[in-house]
Amino acid sequence: MSCCVMFILMLSMKKAAMTTYMLYRCGSICSENMGTMSLLVRHDEFVKFRDDQGNFATSNDVKCLLALYDAAHLRTRGEEILDNAIAFTKSRLQSMIETLDPELAAEVEYTLETPSYRRVERVEARRYISVYEKRATRNDTILEFAKLDYNILQALYCEELKALTLWWKGLQSQAYARFARDRVAEMHFWMLGIVYEPHQSYARMALAKWLKLVSLMDDICDNYSTTEEYDMFISSLERWDKQSSEKLPAYMKALFIFMLNTISDIMEELKLQKNKHAEFVKELFIDMAKRYGAERKWRDEHYVPAKVKEHLQISVGSSASMHIVNVSFILMGDITTREAIEWAFSYPEMIRAVYNFLLSK
Ligand SMILES: *[C@@H]1O[C@H](CO)[C@@H](O)[C@H](O)[C@H]1NC(C)=O
Ligand SMILES: *[C@@H]1O[C@H](CO)[C@@H](O)[C@H](O)[C@H]1NC(C)=O
Ligand SMILES: *[C@@H]1O[C@H](CO)[C@@H](O)[C@H](O)[C@H]1NC(C)=O
């Protein structure tokens, strides 16, 4: 592996994307030493691509513009040069689309809609195989490996989906069918967007199950149970034992036992994997159920929050944005520290942003 490639791998994602752009823009600088390279990836280095008025020098190289557009999206707040880079590349690219050959035009349109690092990786892999295949400059070995990789993972995902379907069918009662969303495949696909690698198979499946059950709670709460029934369900969850299902209405009993078993199994498995945060999987589930209950209370009381801020006090939580991030980290195993877990639970800006994004959709 050349020093150049090694170096890119060592950099953070942001720096890697910018370095790629720089490499592209400056031609080969592999021979330069590391010191120069690390300077190159600083955002103010983009200054050199601007003219005296601070505008980006006009360029007609589409691939170069695309690379800059992509790289600049990894900006952080206050990196004005990169804000300008986005505005500049966007308007240049838009004005060029008409004149490009159809394939390149499609690539430009696609990138303008979603910069490449924001795409779902596996979906992007499939798309890019088709794009790459048509290139005269392709490397057939890489293409073949990409296809093999894609097909191997696809086979694994099918196995997972089979297991998940059997799990869901194992729910003895079909009572949920009257009111709940029945979308196991969709849930699995969503979780694939979070963790797609083969060694994360268990995490992916457990996440899909966890979230399927959360969505079931959401539907019970919004669409079926009475307030008293829902509150009883929450108390049973808090007690976390099978006996406490006895007081529940008939349609809830099997659901309750199923939830209890599924989540207890996940916790057992995590403990076997020596995961220190297994208990959180349950705590977060119960916390989620309570948050739906809080929203419902507003509805029952016909209460309309006066300000968006007040609404967010409940709805940031009930959007599950923190919970999904939290459970994903826990299921990924060793990478999680207690500090990281506490950080997420404090609803930092980053997690609020996920919620705001969901809301804006
Ligand atoms: C294709 O890529 C592989 C892996 O990077 C490399 O070893 C091989 O030399 C390349 N083949 C050609 C023809 O460039
Ligand atoms: C409740 O569930 C039924 C059945 O799935 C669905 O048709 C209906 O739209 C849902 N109602 C609400 C308020 O979500
Ligand atoms: C995850 O949830 C647990 C249990 O509610 C909480 O104590 C912890 O701080 C949370 N961590 C994150 C990353 O949200």
UniProtKB/TrEMBL annotation:
UniProt cross-references to Gene3D superfamilies, sorted A to Z: Farnesyl Diphosphate Synthase, Terpene synthase, N-terminal domain
Keywords attached to this entry: Metal-binding, Signal
Domain Terpene synthase metal-binding per the UniProt entry, residue ranges: 177-354
Occurrences of domain Terpene synthase N-terminal (ranges): 41-112
Superkingdom to which the source organism belongs: Eukaryota
GO MF, any single term: magnesium ion binding
Signal peptide: 1-18
Pfam families in the cross-refs: Terpene_synth (PF01397), Terpene_synth_C (PF03936)
GO biological process, one term: terpenoid biosynthetic process
InterPro entries: Isoprenoid_synthase_dom_sf, Terpene_synth_N, Terpene_synth_N_sf, Terpene_synthase-like, Terpene_synthase_metal-bd, Terpenoid_cyclase/PrenylTrfase
PANTHER family, sorted: (E)-BETA-CARYOPHYLLENE SYNTHASE, OS04G0344100 PROTEIN-RELATED
Protein name per the record: Terpene synthase metal-binding domain-containing protein
